[in-house]
Amino acid sequence: MPIQKTYTDSPFTSEVHCPAAVTPFDKNGDLMVDEFKEVLRFHLDVNRVDAFLIAGDNGEGYTLSTDELARVTRTAAEEIGKRVPFYVHVTRTSNAESLERARAAAAAGAYGICLMPQPYIHKATLAEIVARYAMVAKAVPLPMMVYNSPNHTQIEMSTDVLRSVCDVAPIEAVKDGSRDFVHITEMIENFGHRFPFLYGGRMTLVPTLLLGAGGLVSTGPELFGSRVRELFEVHDMTPEQRLDVHVRYGTVNHAVLETVTPPAGIKAGLNLIGVPAGVPREPVQALSADEEARIRDVLVSVGILEGPLAKTT
C-alpha cells in the first residue's frame, strides 16, 4: 500500500505515479487527437495514475506550437476532467514565451503548469530564477510543478533556490531529474513534508521511493500496466523482492530511454502493448525494425509481453 503522507502544500495524500504522457503524431507530424485520448485513458484506467505531466519531454512539448499546446491541453481537460491533477509543461528559454504558453494552457483548462529554470543559457542567478517563477505565478495563479532538470538547463536547483521559489509561487510538486544522491537527500529532508518529489531515473527510482521521495515521473514503468502500482509496495518487500523490482524497472527504463533517442523508445513500447502512441515528431525518428525488436525482446524478458511473436503494431 502507498505510504500515507501529510503534505502541507499539495493535494496528494500518498505516493504519486505521474506519467509524462506521450503526444501521438502520425508520420506527417500531425497531432493524433483520438489516439491521445486513448493514451490518457490507458493511464487512467490501467495504470491508475495519480497525476499527469502533459507536453513534457515524452510529450514532445518542445515541438508544439502555442496553439497546439492549447489543443493538447483542451483534450486533456476533457478526457481527465477532475479525476486527477494534470500539469502542462510550458517551459521556453525566455520568460515571456513561457508566460505566453502558461496563459494558453490556463485558458484551455489546465489544472496546473510545470516550469523549469531557463534552459539553454546554462546559468542563472537566484534572483533571475525567482523572478521567472514569480512572474508566471502572478500572471497565471495555477498550482505549479517545478521541473528541476540539470540535463536540460545545466542549472541544479538547490534547497535555497527552491525555498525562495516557494515564497513566490504555489508549488505543490517537484519533478526532479537530478542523479546526485546528496541533492536528492537534501531535497527530501527539507521539503518532503510539503510536497512530493517525483524521481524516475534507472538508478534512482526505487532508492528514492525508499527515502520518502513521494512518487515518480519516469519512463518505462507505465508499460507494466496495472503492475506499476507494485512500486509503491517496495517499503514492505524483502531485499530480494526489492532488488527484483529495481532491476526489472531499471532494465525497461534503460531500454526505452537510454539506448535510443527519446521519446522514440517509449512510443515504440506503448505501441507494442497496444497503446496507440504514434511516432516521434522530427527531428527524432521512429525506431528501425531492429531497434523495435530489441525493445520487444526487453519487454518479453521482464514479462510485459509473452514470447518472441508478441504484438508489434
Question: Can you tag this structure with a few keywords?
Answer:
single chain, TIM Barrel, two-stranded parallel ribbon, 8 strands, disordered C terminus
Account of the protein in words:
With 313 residues, the protein is an alpha/beta fold. It has a domain at 16-230: TIM Barrel (Alpha-Beta Barrel), CATH 3.20.20.70. Helix content is 41%, strand content 9%. The chain has helices spanning 33-47, 66-80, 95-107, 126-139, 150-153, 159-166, 181-191, 205-211, 239-258, 264-272, 289-301, and strands at 16-17, 52-54, 86-89, 112-115, 144-148, 171-176, 197-198, 215-216. The protein has a six-stranded parallel β-sheet with strand order 2-3-4-5-6-7. Strands 1-8 form a two-stranded parallel ribbon. The two termini are 34 Å apart. 48% of the residues are buried.
First-last Cα distance: 34 Å
Mean pLDDT: 94
> What is Rg?
18 Å
Unreliable segments of 5+ consecutive residues: 309-313
How many strand segments? 8
For the biggest β-sheet, the strand order reads 2-3-4-5-6-7
CATH topology (level 3) name of the domain at 16-230: TIM Barrel
Main β sheet profile: 6 strands, parallel
Q: Treating each run of at least 4 consecutive H or I residues as one helix, how many helices?
A: 11
CATH superfamily of the domain at 16-230: Aldolase class I
CATH architecture call of the domain at 16-230: Alpha-Beta Barrel
* Percent of residues in beta strands: 5-15%
Order of helices and strands: EHEHEHEHEHHEHEHEHHH
Q: What structural class results from the helix and strand content? A: alpha/beta
